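Entry for shikimate-3-phosphate complex. Fields follow.
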Amino acid sequence: MIKKVTKDFKNLNGEIIIPPDKSISHRAVIFASLANGKSIIKNFSDGQDPKSTLNIFKHLGVDIEIQKNATIIINSKAKLLPPTQNLDCGNSGTSMRLIAGVLARQKFNSVLIGDQSLSKRPMKRIIEPLTLMGAHIESPNYTAPLKIKGQKLHAIHYNSPKASAQVKSCILLAGLGAEGGKTIISEPFLSRNHTEIMLKYMGANIEVSENTVSIEKSELTPIDIEICGDISSAAYFIAAALIVPKSNIILKKVGLNPTRTGILDILKQMGADIKIIDEYEICGEKVGTLQIKYSQLNGCEISGEIIPRLIDEIPILAVIATQANGKTLIKDALELRNKESDRITSVVTELKKLGANIEETQDGMIIEGKTPLMGDCEVKTYHDHRLAMSLYVAGLICKKEILIKNFQWVNISFPTFEKLFESLKK
Ligand code: S3P
């Protein structure tokens, strides 16, 4: 599907509710399926990725009822059944990496498969630690499909070379059923901690100390949760309001977990007018309302410890940086090359077509601003939802229309993306 984006509006104004968080939606289904009893998950994400996770647990024999109002009821006996088919993670790295940690310790065998993009993504990062725990996983060159021979696992102490919530969560989910004491995982910098928060809330024996988490074999109690809005989805509206002159918008129900708010810290440093109007907590997760106004921005350096706190927002930060005065340097972000696309090459290539002054480096990019974006061209999405959404936002400020090829990738995380943008266009 080709999407035409034109500057056919004056500014962005109004109020929207940000749709549910993808990372928390995955975890709610996985953990509720492992708990004993009835869990109620309200405001479940309508993105394709969390649906892939949900379908996998249906195939593992869990009683899952999907109600009309985005509510999911899970009645689980804390026991999974052998699947009768391969388990399809679609485009979702989170599904594959987290669920592998659960399946590795079952009494049955299973196969995790994914689409063309997911089948190229690295799985060594989970296969290695799971194998140290006693898991048997066969895979072509450490990529999907993952053929998992269920085994009893034993606890390990693991120093992860990467700050990755998917790796951390995979090991914690394996450790939740492992014998032999505490499974301990340390990471170089703190990655998103939704797993730790939700497992603790559901009664797991889990302890956190700075960048180290330990877990012991535990039973989970069911959960009743309303999932907050996804700050990674909010990021596109924040960006658009900051770069479209005279914009002023309010975003409600935005998840404000500090391990995810790197984008707010960087934008404030760049001079953005962003206010947190109110703040509250749901099941241990911070949530709030944001007001964002058009701002004059300055370039900055984005590197080091903050990278895991904004890793998914780098494509849209690159778009913003084209409209900031001076140089923005993004480094220490080699991990971007392992996402749904190689987000260093894809972002730089496509933003260049629009007229941005942007150069690729080995572990990031350099953007010189402020540069007017011309448009009048066709851009590609590389099977990557975040690229599709970032290019749409760039299109809002291009002098001439742009055509985004295969825009439907947006449905992976955000099917109502365009509808919400339309509601803000004045
Ligand atoms: C996610 C973790 C991050 C992030 C991804 C979602 C999660 O990946 O990029 O979109 O829900 O745990 P990594 O763990 O590979 O950094």
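NOTE: The first helix runs from residue 22 to 34.
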